[in-house]
């Protein structure tokens, strides 16, 4: 059974990744304690978990707030994902060559099928299912260290995606990732780099478009 601080962290994380707490929103201990009935100590521990996951930042004299990733943060995150996913694919190709067994691909294809079941109007669920495709591909390599390092990026990636929706549709994502699963078997790390560089460009374009819209408004 999760502790009170873990349960509260889960609740706050869901609010951030569901878009209910926007980027830069202050996370004040006293406000959260009053709203949820938890002690300040419990709230402080829950916020520390979000800070460790990079969903929140804590700064002297400013307190804790929801992280506002910069474009440089997005690029650095994608570069790290690329390194991890490329190594996972290298391991898979070293073991299975350019055509991987159905047993290896089954969890990845199941994740793509789950993505196809999502609705365009529920973007947080789409983003989570999208991330699960990449997570299942990395897990297929069977390296606990690589899988753990990649999993630790999940929350930060979803923070970027759910708050600035790129020009994606479920149908387009499914087709793109079905192709990706085939291309990484054939082309290895080159396919990973091309895929993630393409998605980085889309995300950065969406962020800049959203920023221009806010400025014009």
From TrEMBL:
InterPro entries hit by this protein: GntR_C (IPR011711), TF_FadR/GntR_C (IPR008920), Tscrpt_reg_HTH_GntR (IPR000524), WH-like_DNA-bd_sf (IPR036388), WH_DNA-bd_sf (IPR036390)
Gene Ontology molecular function: DNA binding; DNA-binding transcription factor activity
The keyword DNA-binding is assigned to this record: yes
Source organism superkingdom: Bacteria
Pfam families: FCD, GntR
Domain HTH gntR-type positions: 2-69
Keywords associated with the record: DNA-binding, Transcription, Transcription regulation
Protein name: GntR family transcriptional regulator
Organism: Nocardioides flavescens
């Amino acid at each position: 059974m999760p502790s009170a601080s873990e349960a509260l962290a889960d609740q706050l994380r869901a609010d951030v990744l569901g878009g209910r707490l926007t980027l830069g929103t202050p996370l004040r201990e006293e406000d959260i304690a009053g709203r949820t009935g938890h002690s300040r100590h419990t709230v402080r521990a829950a916020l520390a978990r979000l800070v460790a996951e990079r969903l929140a930042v804590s700064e002297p004299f400013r307190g804790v707030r929801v992280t506002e990733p910069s474009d440089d943060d997005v690029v650095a995150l994608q570069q790290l994902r690329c390194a991890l996913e490329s190594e996972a694919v290298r391991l898979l190709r070293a073991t299975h060559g350019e055509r991987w067994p159905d047993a290896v691909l089954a969890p990845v294809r199941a994740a793509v099928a789950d993505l196809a079941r999502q609705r365009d109007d529920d973007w947080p669920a789409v983003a989570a299912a999208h991330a699960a495709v990449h997570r299942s591909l990395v897990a297929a390599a069977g390296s606990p260290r690589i899988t753990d390092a990649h999993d630790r990026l999940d929350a930060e990636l979803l923070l970027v995606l759910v708050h600035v929706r790129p020009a994606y549709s479920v149908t387009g994502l499914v087709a793109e990732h079905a192709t990706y699963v085939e291309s990484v078997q054939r082309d290895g790390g080159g396919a990973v780099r091309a895929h993630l560089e393409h998605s980085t460009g889309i995300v950065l374009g969406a962020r800049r478009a959203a920023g221009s819209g806010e400025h014009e408004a």
